[in-house]
Amino acid sequence: MTEVSVTKDAKPAADDLVVLKGVNKHFGALHVLQDIDLTITRGEVVVVIGPSGSGKSTLCRTINRLETIDAGAISIDGKPLPQEGKELARLRADVGMVFQSFNLFAHKTVLENVMLGQTKVRRTPKAEAEEKARALLDRVGVGSQADKYPAQLSGGQQQRVAIARALAMGPKVMLFDEPTSALDPEMINEVLEVMQQLARDGMPPSMPGRTTASPSTSAETKDVHHEGSQVRRRGGGDRRSRPDRHRLRR
Amino acid sequence: MNVLLDHLPEFREGFIGTILLTLASGALAMVLGIVIAGFRVSPVPPLRFFGAAWVTLFRNTPLTVLFLVAWFVVPVIFMPGLSPWTKALLALGFYTSAFVCEAIRSGINTVPLGQAEAARSIGMTFFQTLRLIVLPQATRTVIPPLSSIFIALTKNSAIAGAFSVTELFGVQKLLSDKGFDIAWIFLWVAIGYLIITFTISGLFRLLERRLGVAR
Q1: Distance from CA of B45 to the nearest CA of A (A)
Q2: Which of B47, B110, B111, B121 to mutate to test the interface with A (most CBs of A within 10 A)?
């Protein structure tokens, strides 16, 4: 791990949505994140790829502070991540997260899953929240499953509900932590299609900006290769035409 | 047989006394138990310490000692002038709350961590996460141990009888002092307890089934 090459975007700083500076994280003796510098701008799609155990998920989870960091600084939309508490909760509401294992609320119906954050965190009136939830569920193609419980859905359907649940909060940033790795091959596509459609749609009014961090094939603009200290950026399309050189080198 | 019929008012009063004491201290134990369990899983270290200390103290003290403390220490140091019934309520409620807390905490631990993470990631506070996501899902696993705890509470309330609180077991002392046949008295007292404990386990079984289909 000798090569560290980080290319900063030339865009103005005002557009920087997620900024990581010198982020370090240890799990016991294991130094997972080593001096990570990463700037993600509004509307940008970033994909993090790397071998398993290289810290992709950890990087993703530090951004909404599900994992605390040992050193460095993370700020979202210009505000540094606060300590655990009300303020952090407010900030997390603006950062949508989709998990590898879906994590839909098992005791709530699909519709309730998408409504809960709106009514309890955003204090949206019930009727309005339900309307938005149904619209989002239709958009990800599971509108007809609204009254079922998560356990009654297939993995792909559950993950699409999870995407709708995150979108319902009107997030500034969307984090996808290996959203398709727990899915059967034929279900991966339906989830990827939803994600690609989201990326293509640009920004709906509920989503002023979106950032995707996901180790998947839906890379549209930027790739970030990540292995401990190595965060490298490349232009879109690069990855398909060239083999992943620094992985081959290992 | 005649003991029961001749002293029906005493038995009835004792029976109702036991039910009331069990219900009241059960309610107190539930409220305290849930709050302390919340403390024990909270991200705030002092609260966690307080919860652990509470459970250690009340779970490891013999109930009779707690009764003695409630009778002879609490009035002197904290609150004088409590009625015997209130003191019995406090001793039973605090003692049982430690067990309720641990049952609830074990239920909380059965809810996958991802559920709480998902809740936090959509901006819920710790309290919201616990109340809206974790506790409702913990309920089902907690029902069977809670049933045992409340049955134990019913039987533990007999100690209050020795401290001159009107309840079912106290009836035995009253009547055997009057010279009635002790075997018959015990039989009726035992049946009284069985009625209460069977009702509790029946209610909890019903609850378990109801929550079973809700998923």
Answers
A1: 13
A2: B121
The Cα-based distances of A196 to A97, A100, A199 in angstroms read: 16, 17, 5
B132 lies within 8 A of chain A by CB: yes
Q: What does the block give as tokens for B61?
A: 């003290």
Selecting from A106, A116, A149 the residue whose C-beta is nearest the C-beta of B132 gives A116
- Of the candidates A86, A103, A116, the beta carbon closest to that of B117 is on A103
User: What is the least distance, in Å, from the CA of B204 to any CA of chain A?
Assistant: 20
Which range of A163-172, B2-11, B48-57 scores highest in mean pLDDT? It is: B48-57
Q: What is the pLDDT of residue B103?
A: 96
Angle between helices A110-120 and A155-167 (to 10 degrees): 20
Contacts A–B by Cβ distance under 8 A: 72
Rounded (10°) CA dihedral A141, A145, A146, A148 = -150
pLDDT tens, residue by residue, B93-117: 999 999 999 999 999 999 999 999 9
Q: To probe the interface with B, which of A103, A158, A159, A175 has the most B CB atoms within 10 Å?
A: A103
Prediction ipTM score: 0.78
Other Cβ atoms closer than 10 A to B32: 19
A16-28: pLDDT as tens digits: 888 889 889 988 8
| Distance between CA atoms of residues A227 and A43, nearest Å | 24
All structural domains of chain B, each given as residue ranges with its CATH number in brackets, are 2-211 (1.10.3720.10)
Q: Note the pLDDT tens digit of each residue in B138-196.
A: 988 899 999 999 999 999 998 888 887 888 888 888 888 887 888 888 888 899 999 99
